[in-house]
Amino acid sequence: MIEEFQQAGKQGESGWKLVLTYDGTDYCGWQVQPGRITVQGTLAGAIERITGERMLPQGSGRTDAGVHALGQVASFALAAAIPEGNFLRALNRALPASVRVLEAVRVPLEFHARHSAVGKRYEYRIFRGEICPPWLSRYVYALNWPLNVAAMREAAAEVIGEHDFVSFAANDPDLAQRGMSSEERASTVRTIFASSWEEAGELLVYRVHGSGFLHHMVRNLVGTFLDVGRGHVAAGSMKTIMESRSRTAAGATAPARGLFLVSVDY
After folding, report:
1. Which of 151, 155, 164, 168 might form a disulfide with 220, Cβ 3.0–4.6 angstroms?
2. pLDDT tens by residue, 174-193
3. What is the CATH number of domain 14-107?
4. Would residue 64 show up in a list of annotated catalytic residues for this protein?
């Protein structure tokens, strides 16, 4: 396993912060994996081709295979004295069209895309029409079941606040191998600042803003809200599900293709 980049940096290095957007469909997630195409590995390769420096950019979070990003953040240090504007243009020439860099700025070496984050926003998109257009199918969960959206909104509001969200975390025995610290693995308490469902034409969109999210947490919340919408779970059951501290009490994991990391707060 490749060790995480050390933020202390070397003498003469500058810290960098990138804001990226990407179509995650054809990637095996963010985190670099041997023999697989990942966003982190693709970005590291582009930076090396531009600067000649081998490094591993650290992301604000490890989006899973098929998950997209509108505002992923990455940080790293470089010795190369390259102007910000030139670096931005060079990165977008070096990267595939499925990954675009929206912003490239110098930051203090202490800045870390993940450790410095204080909040994140995600959204999950569901297509409710009869026939999903092919240009949307990579980015939505096409689902035209009858749904009680009012009940889903009620359930979404119940998760606002500080709670233990272990019932909505992935059953993931190899978290340690994914680079998470023992402290991160031990804490499953998160604070949700906003949680809501909105209808926009044929789209039903879940938007959530929180202090942080567990592995698969948003997709597991969406799967549970869908159970509420279908009448399989009562809208007022979210507190009971959270208090059970059992993954089996919550709904199925919604497909990755509908999930977007929207932005990161610092």
Report:
1. 168
2. 443 344 444 554 589 999 99
3. 3.30.70.580
4. yes
